[in-house]
Amino acid sequence: MERELIEYLAKSLVDNPDGVEVNVIEGEKSTILELKVAGDDVGKVIGKHGRIAKAIRTLLSASATKSGKRVVLEILD
After folding, report:
1. Tell me, what's the pLDDT at 67?
2. Could you list the residue ranges that cross the membrane (predicted)?
3. pLDDT at 66 over 90
């Protein structure tokens, strides 16, 4: 569920939606989502002063509350 959410949000923000890639790393108590976008689009996903990244993380944590797991978003460049 969270993977699809991040993928949808990232593809909506970037100029090159084909360059969006989300990897999921499952742990016992937490899940790590690695978001990789094209080099030119990293700034669009992070936003000024990290505002967009913070908003995406807020939506992600709200979505993950149902499962009871902690979800972490890492934006790779």
Report:
1. 76
2. none
3. no
pTM of this prediction exceeds 0.85: yes
Over the stretch 22-63, which tens digit does the pLDDT of each residue have? 999 998 888 999 999 999 999 999 999 999 999 999 999 998
Burial class (CB in 10 A: 0-12, 13-18, 19+), 48: exposed
Nearest to 12 by CA among 48, 49, 50, 55: 55
- Beta-carbon contacts of 58 under 8 Å, excluding residues fewer than 6 positions away, are none
CA atoms lying within 13 Å on the CB side of residue 58: 6
Q: Which two tokens stand for residue 24?
A: 């999921």
Q: Are 38 and 14 in contact (CB under 8 A)?
A: yes
Token pair 């499952």 is found at: 26
Domain of 28?
2-76
